[in-house]
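quick one, two chains, predict together pls
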Amino acid sequence: MKRIYFDHSATTPVDREVADLMLEYMTDKYGNPSSVHSFGRETRKAIEEAREKVAALINASPNEIFFTSGGTEGDNLAIKGVAYANRKKGNHIITTQIEHHAVLHTCEYLEKQGFTVTYLPVDEHAMVRMEDLKNAITDKTILISVMFANNEVGTIQPIKEIGQLAKEKGIYFHTDAVQVAGNYPIDVKELNIDLLTLSGHKFYASKGIGALYIRRGVKIEEIQHGGGHERNMRAGTENVPGIVGLGKAAEIAKRDMEKKVTYIQGLRDKLIAGVMEKIPHVKLNGHPECRMPGNANFSFLYIEGESLLLNLDLKGIAASSGSACTSGSLDPSHVLLAMGLTHEVAHGSLRVSLGRGNTEEDINYFLEVVPEIVERLRSMSPLYGSAAEFKPSNPCTHCHHQ
Amino acid sequence: MYTEKVMDHFTNPRNVGEIKNASGVGEVGNAKCGDIMRIYLQVDNDIITDVKFKTFGCGAAIATSSMVTEMVKGKTLDEALEISNQAVAEALGGLPPAKMHCSNLAADALHEAIKDYIAKKGK
């Protein structure tokens, strides 16, 4: 059966060129970069070359790049690190309700440590309102952490304005750019970003490697203690294969950025137009224009996301859903709820995230199979059609939803 | 994560639909949970002669709805009332623990339909 991968926001395949290079640094060039002998010097050199490539991807300086194990570690280091180092100045952090759990749970942890956190709401397109941000700032605010683009609905935030405001107020600005780095242009200087998290496996490097950009001069404390790796900022023997792979992926991403963005956005637009034209009662979630090139997120009214996902999988299509049933919790995605979607609508959501390996043929196949799946599920849904008038609406005794 | 039997009932659900002028209709769940199940019964001489369902929900919700309709057809009302959510899950070869909570309400819907039938009959 034909298999189509539409879940690039979850992870991407490792680029063959990246994998080949990683293999070389696992088998032939295996020295510990902290060793003084030639084996060690060889890998140290490779790490520094990778640092230059990652820095170039976001217009930073190599000494502003610190390798981490991925996005979650980068977010933890940025937020806790700035919070701990600036505690004397203030204890207030501003973030949003739609962040990844790596940010939200880190902030919740800091609240237990005596920090206060404002979780900004978003509008119906998942966009932060600058007015809300301005109003939330106090003289105790030390950090603003707003994601560059949302991982579920793809909305790109007004990063430049946020960075400018933070700069004017003397507040550090961190952005979780895990979905963006390598997939969309970033210039940390132009955007006034102080700290930026990126993750390799979202742009064709391997899982388990990422980086945190820390602008020179930012006051930050390390959270992992051990040897003096990464200039004391991230202890632990470097993941050399991961790092050289990240460097190679960054190099490829920068080289192909314009072409890749144009290509993927073209496919995405065709997919969105096709779904909206062929299927009634569909809502496009996220911002109509300010969204990641590869992201499409729909709510198919009257059906539930997991059922849709399973049916798509049976047809060979891999996508993702914000429905509760796929996450193991009872509530659907916190992002969709924060955007004001009702539970019913949020339960029927589907995220389609495209990558450079997708083709027009993939889109055509998706547009061929999805309408019949949706129709079939709706035909058995008590919420759809004439039966929708029947409303005994018993409260659920299992999860106490009224 | 689902058994073959669950996937079989999910992909080929039995007895989907409505019964016009049904003897009893029962609905449980809540759209907030992501699961709503509605069961229609045709009852003749205290025997369930026909049963249909409509479900809004995940794979487990659809499979359990389908399974309960198969289990109940031809049974007396008393026998049907003895079918539990646990029994439906077991008949499917088990469900993931997380799915036992909100997605396996099929027997509850059946019991509601029987209650509806009894209430209507009493009028």
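The two ends of chain A are 43 Å apart (CA to CA).
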